[in-house]
């Protein structure tokens, strides 16, 4: 039978390119979890995705109610859940003030981490009961949260500190909107959220891989300098960033190539190892990459997991 892959944020960029790459193989049905139904449907059509190869289901990760509703709606489709890809993200590098999700969490961590944390926890049962030979839960990471790399050392650096902000709910009122309790910084909030994504993947692996057989993975697909992720950046940055990545850092990848990479993590029979953070070298060959000290700290992963459980109402 065809596999079914759920991809969040499949209305643009990496998520759309991955949905297209999978649908084109004829071996996958893609469930696109998107906050803007019309945009997603136009994007799928414009990408040339065949009708019947995908289903769009509304999902707004900035609302825990919407996440729960999405899970209920997915179950109503009566399709198996074989792979889940947590891909959607917001990046607000120029925001002067924090903005907040429906539940009052700072937006970048709320959407990129907490919304996905609840989604992944809820869908783990569905993944576990699938009879697909290789079930996978993938959380898209990033190099920018990884302070053991050049890109991860561009300030402001990711740093979750002692998690005091996360512990108090990131509401910007009784506590700071930042995980480490510091001043709001949109670029740092994004990087912190990506560290949470990578820690969450590893904690899932430690807690559930043995019991469920699900493969948990994260990845850095390369710098996809053309996606909507940079939409809130200043115009000069948006103009110069793609050529800079292409010719100077040489980390640039097209959306199509990045989509193929993520599609490999979804379906390639050689990428079944769990607990891995995948990257690709200049010849587009995948390898198991090292995470920074903070992004691979098991104590921190456990604390982030426990605090996140409380915030999303699982504990
Ligand atoms: P895009 O902005 O193109 O895509 C992000 C997607 O997330 C969009 O579909 C967007 O929906 C969706 N989204 C945003 N907020 C919400 C929400 N509240 N609920 C549901 N969906 C939402 O960026 P990319 O494709 O670049 O990013 C995809 C992933 O790749 C992210 O996890 C990012 O961190 C990661 N990444 C990107 C890199 C890059 O260089 N671009 C490098 C490394 C990692 P909508 O279309 O409605 O806005």
From TrEMBL:
Family per similarity comment: Belongs to the short-chain dehydrogenases/reductases (SDR) family. POR subfamily.
Name of the protein: NADPH-protochlorophyllide oxidoreductase
Free-text function comment from the UniProt entry: Phototransformation of protochlorophyllide (Pchlide) to chlorophyllide (Chlide).
From-to range in the entire protein, with total length: 875 to 1189 of 1193
Domain of life: Eukaryota
Subcellular location: Plastid, Chloroplast
Record organism: Oryza meridionalis
